[in-house]
Design brief:
Elements lengths: L2 H17 L6 E11 L4 E11 L6 E7 L11 H8 L15 E3 L4 E2 L2 E2 L3 E2 L21 E10 L4 E11 L8 E3 L2 E4 L5 E2 L1 E3 L2 E3 L13 E11 L3 E4 L2 E2 L2 H20 L5 H13 L26 E11 L4 E4 L2 E11 L2 E10 L3 H4 L2 H15 L7 E6 L7 E4 L2 E4 L5 H13 L19 H13 L17 H4 L3 H8 L15 H23 L1 H15 L6 H10 L4 H8 L8 E6 L4 E7 L10 E8 L4 E8 L3 E5 L4 E6 L14 E3 L9 E6 L10 E13 L3 E10 L7 E10 L4 E12 L6 E13 L2 E12 L10 E14 L6 E3 L7 E10 L4 E11 L5 E12 L4 E11 L31 H4 L20 E11 L2 E13 L4 E9 L3 E3 L3 E3 L2 E6 L10 H9 L15
Parallel strand pairs: 1-15, 21-22, 22-24, 32-33
Antiparallel strand pairs: 1-2, 2-9, 3-8, 3-12, 4-9, 5-6, 5-9, 7-8, 10-11, 11-19, 13-14, 15-18, 16-19, 17-18, 20-21, 23-24, 25-26, 26-29, 27-28, 27-30, 30-31, 33-34, 34-35, 35-36, 36-37, 37-38, 38-39, 39-40, 39-41, 41-42, 42-43, 43-44, 44-45, 45-46, 46-47, 47-50, 48-49
Length: 1010
């Protein structure tokens, strides 16, 4: 379907949805469950009444059986975790996984057998149907008779849940239990259709509102924290006693000296991964050490209306602290912290963090309606925290400031998702993005979540001159995804930095334009209209529009991966009088829109502040001391391209950025009114040039820029002569399409007797948004001019009379995940003298529990063998490579000669004298079980035109193999054929030839970024 027709179809679908009146189903639950803390089982019974408030007659109901996401390999959760580089669940033993069984569904007393999910109706637009084909955690439950509009029915079933180890959010860690997404649960049916959701780490929630009555039976000594309100009086008294003992014990602990505490927090923040777990003090209460479930049981009863999920957490060692906060006159909410006593130094302040979030968001968005808000320290393997109605689980955190940030964020989800129940699978920004904006606002104590400064330094802190470092990293990876995309579109990095952070920064831009008071009023309207309902992005935008805010414009900004681009036009009228015009040609910012500008004196002090409206021409009289005029000086308006936001008042080229030099600066952020150049010492070595020394001058390296260059002059001490390279890169970042990066490269280099000029155009394609594990593809057109220098004379001879020596079209595809990495390459080229050349390669890296296997298949063919440098070799060889670090001709001896990049034949034995116009090769490498650093390698190949085979077996000690990208190590050839000299005949010759020659597969091409 063409793009035009696609837009027509999308518009029609929105029109159809808009014509349907809003409706919302309701579910009322009665659940009884018992925890077996010895075998880690839940045994229970669920009954729920499903009320059909839709105008449609329903033939059945999708049911989520989310514990089955942990039942086997190949589930949607397993695939998503592998795509994110996580393999713990994939390699888990059978008894470490989980499932739900013992189901016996009855609908209004009639036994009904659930059907596979693919037998149900088509999911709503946006959900990939293929996820349901073999999904064990979603089923279709047909009704004995259709459910008419306004009707209701009762569904009940026993169930048993085998609790897994905590691979995501459900499970146990010893006797520490996180019981989340644990019971059979209906999928949402709304005006856009059914939303059956296989369990995923990203885009967790979309659930029907209702009422819960839950009875939980646990060992007598367990502390249980849950959604809902506890209705068991004797348990209240027991918890109060546990809290009293917690307070008394903390009060007896010695205060940590301020200096010691500062060092401790610094070490935790700097070395968080290696900080280790805190230890329990020896004088801790006995219950803090008691991890044995009591032989007797107790039953606790919880009830709550107007929530869409129920979660609970249990551990016999939990400590408790609580406080109350007033969110409105006479309206008090209990703030509860449940945690392990060894982390008391940070968790003793947790009730105040909860209260801070409750008061702020109740004031800014809408009043918190429930009796308590609880934060629990618990087992969690997916993120730093996870929200559920009225309760959130936080992973162990010892740093106080970090815990405050996580608690504030997770408590904020009680509004964004807990009360405003948006579809997080399809619109994660509506939950995570809005919540991230308020998290930053609370943490900074400022409506713009960035502090004001009276000083702006031309060479100043990054917060005044550049985007935040995490967003620079995001753009450098070119992982940009429209913040308004569905969770299926995001990878691990783009989800956190796109759906969370970028949305927060874009919202900040809107708030700065309209004013925080108007923004808060509009968000209160949104809350009043949509609390306890299911708002879509259009509903959010309409709520803003109803209060005079540019809701539709903001929604358009969130649905593109482009950013605003402010452009300052200026003309000098007199010494201090300037005509200025501020434009934003992308039209992404809503109109009217006003932007801060400052006039800066030479020492860096602000001489005057201004507010400039977009698309208007003004005459400004600047203070006589003005040195620099800047718009959006702190980048509070989210902007990626900043080179046209300023002008100097006393320079010949006022709109040119001032050059800034940095010695040994590999990372150079984007500055507003400076162009940074990096300078690094550089060294190289190869056999013909010997040791080389020089300097690397570059403009642009981190993050990726639209224009980058480098100049690398190196002096050869062996020749002696000047060697080196130079390059220019131009980039374009297409928005909202399959092609997300275009690079045009021009590069010249002169090393080891090869003068190479390369021109290339590369197009990078986004992975398919519907694939949890997708392919990343590159299409490349490249051209080479080559000149060779003979060892006998210094002059160069250009191949092909100065015309391009080779032109090729390449395609590369890479599919990476924690278990299997695949790389596929195909290339077709021509030397402009009648010779076609083609080559193809497949590499696969697969991990097993205690060992790995790496496989490579390669084939190459050239129509004629008159072009020597295009011929193939059994060993690794790159005819167009960069030889500042590798020896082109593999001359001399020692380790330098024994470098074998895994290209062409990839054979781990010297065979440089053999060249062929056709080559087939296979390379196989596998580690020894439980000895991953020791590998056995087999190389084999066939030369069709020479009718000859080669093979070899090597024992290797790789220092490091990162999937199939980076390999550093050594191989001792044990057996095989050789093409240089005769086959050794004596034992000594065999030992010398095949055992003691270490071959080093060191490929440093990846280390050269140009």
């Amino acid at each position: 379907m063409s793009n035009g027709w696609s837009w027509v179809a999308i518009s029609l679908s929105f029109w159809v949805w808009a014509q349907r009146p809003y409706f919302q189903q309701r579910v009322e639950y009665w659940i009884k469950v018992q925890l077996d803390a010895q075998q880690h089982f839940l045994r229970g019974h669920i009954r729920f009444v499903y009320r059909n408030n839709s105008p449609d007659t329903l033939p059945g109901l999708y049911i989520h059986l989310w514990p089955n996401a942990y039942s086997r390999r190949g589930t949607a959760l397993d695939k998503q975790q592998r795509a994110r580089g996580e393999s713990r669940f994939f390699f888990a033993r059978k008894n470490e996984r989980g499932y739900i069984d013992s189901l016996d569904f009855q609908v209004d007393g009639v036994a009904v057998r659930p059907l596979p999910a693919w037998r149900g109706p088509k999911p709503a637009e946006g959900h990939p149907p293929y996820l349901l084909k073999k999904a064990p955690d979603v089923v279709w439950l047909p009704f004995p008779k259709p459910l008419p509009p306004g009707g209701h029915l009762t569904v009940e079933t026993p169930f048993r849940v085998k609790l897994p180890l905590v691979f995501s959010r459900l499970g146990h860690q010893g006797v520490e239990y996180a019981i989340t997404q644990w019971y059979p649960k209906p999928a949402v049916y709304d005006a856009r259709g059914w939303h059956p959701l296989p369990y995923l780490d990203q885009g967790e929630f979309y659930s029907e509102w209702g009422r819960y009555e839950v009875e939980i039976t646990v060992p007598q000594n367990f502390v249980v924290a849950a959604s809902g309100l506890l209705q068991t009086p004797e348990e209240w008294l027991w918890l109060r006693q546990r809290e009293l003992e917690t307070r008394q014990w903390i009060a007896q602990q010695p205060d940590t000296p301020a200096a010691e505490e500062k060092v401790r927090r610094f070490l935790i923040a700097s070395f968080r991964l290696s900080a280790g777990k805190a230890t329990l003090p020896p004088n801790a209460p006995s219950w803090a050490r008691d991890d044995a479930p009591a032989p007797t049981y107790k039953t606790l009863r919880f009830t709550q209306d107007s929530i869409h999920d129920f979660a609970w957490f249990a551990d016999p060692r939990y400590a408790i602290l609580s406080d109350s906060t007033e969110i409105a006159p006479g309206r008090w909410v209990r703030c509860v912290a449940v945690f392990r006593l060894e982390d008391y130094r940070s968790w003793q302040y947790a009730p105040s963090y909860i209260a801070e979030a409750l008061r702020s968001l109740s004031d800014w968005v809408g009043p918190y309606p429930y009796a308590h808000a609880t934060a629990v320290e618990g087992p969690l393997a997916a993120g730093g925290g996870m929200e559920y109605p009225m309760i959130t689980v936080i992973s162990p955190i010892q740093d106080t400031s970090q815990l405050r940030r996580v608690v504030v964020h997770e408590v904020g989800h009680n509004w964004f998702q807990g009360l405003l129940g948006s579809n997080e699978r399809l619109h994660p920004w509506q939950d995570e993005g809005l919540n991230s904006y308020y998290e930053r606002r609370i943490m900074q104590g400022d409506p713009t979540f960035m502090g004001e400064s009276e000083v702006i330094r031309p060479i100043g802190p990054a917060r005044y001159t550049s985007l935040p470092i995490e967003m620079l990293f995001y753009h450098h990876l070119n992982a940009d995804v429209a913040p308004g995309a569905s969770s299926y579109h995001f990878g691990l990095v783009s989800y956190g930095l796109g759906a969370y952070n970028k949305t927060a920064y874009l919202l900040r831009s809107l708030v700065l334009a309209v004013g925080v008071e108007r923004w808060d009023a509009a968000m209160r309207t949104y809350f009043q209209r949509w609390a306890f309902r299911h708002p879509y992005p259009e509903d959010w935008a309409e709520s803003l529009t109803s209060q005079g805010l540019p809701g539709q414009a903001m929604l358009r900004l969130l649905r593109t991966d482009r950013e605003p681009d402010l452009r300052l036009r200026f003309r000098r009228l007199s010494d201090s009088l300037y005509q200025v015009r501020l434009e934003e040609p992308t039209q992404l910012l809503p109109r009217p829109f006003r932007v801060e500008a400052v006039a800066i004196e030479r020492p860096g002090w602000i001489a005057e502040r201004y507010t400039l409206p977009l698309d208007s021409t003004l005459e400004l009289s600047l203070p006589p001391s003005t040195h620099l005029f800047v718009v959006n000086p702190q980048l509070l308006i989210y902007e990626r391209r900043v080179a046209n936001n300023f002008f100097y008042t006393r320079r010949w080229l006022p709109g040119w950025r001032r050059l800034k030099w940095g010695i040994v600066r590999p990372l150079v952020p984007l500055y507003l009114y400076q162009y940074s150049l990096g300078l690094l010492p550089a060294f190289g070595y190869n056999y013909r040039d010997g040791l080389m020394a020089g300097a690397l001058l570059y403009g642009g390296l981190f993050p990726k820029r639209t224009l980058e260059f480098h100049l690398l002059p190196l002096y050869s001490f062996l020749q002696p002569t000047l060697r080196g390279s130079a390059g220019l890169t131009l980039r374009a970042f297409p928005a909202d399409g399959r092609l997300h990066l275009i690079e045009m490269r021009l590069r010249t280099s002169n090393f080891a007797g090869l003068w190479r000029v390369k021109a290339a155009v590369e197009g990078f394609l986004r992975r398919s948004p519907e694939a949890l594990i997708g392919w990343r593809q590159v299409v490349r057109l490249r051209s080479y001019h080559l000149a060779f220098q003979s060892p006998e004379r210094p002059s160069y001879t250009w191949e092909n009379g100065g015309r391009p020596a080779y032109v090729a079209l390449d395609w590369e595809g890479r599919r990476e995940e924690a278990i299997t990495t695949l790389f596929v390459m195909g290339s077709v080229g021509h030397d402009l003298r009648g010779s076609f050349r083609t080559e193809g390669e497949l590499r696969a890296f697969h991990r097993f529990r205690h060992w790995h296997i790496w496989t490579r298949l390669y084939g190459g063919w050239i129509s004629a063998d008159r072009t020597d440098y295009l011929l193939f070799r059994p060993t690794g060889y790159d005819p167009f490579g960069e030889y500042v670090l590798l020896d082109r001709f593999r001359e001399g001896g020692g380790v330098i000669r024994r470098q074998f990049p895994e290209t062409q034949g990839g054979w781990r034995a010297p065979a440089d004298t053999l060249r062929t116009s056709a080559l087939l090769a296979v390379n196989l490498e596998f580690s020894l079980p439980r000895w991953r650093s020791i590998v056995l390698r087999t190389d084999a190949g066939y030369l069709p035109q020479r009718r000859r085979t080669y093979w070899g077996i090597s024992l290797g000690l790789p220092v490091y193999r990162f999937r199939d990208r980076i390999l550093v190590g050594g191989y001792f050839p044990l057996l095989g054929t050789t093409f240089e000299g005769e086959r050794p005949k004596t034992l000594g010759a065999v030992m010398e030839r095949f055992v003691w020659q270490i071959e080093v597969p060191l490929d440093l091409r990846w280390a050269i970024p140009w």
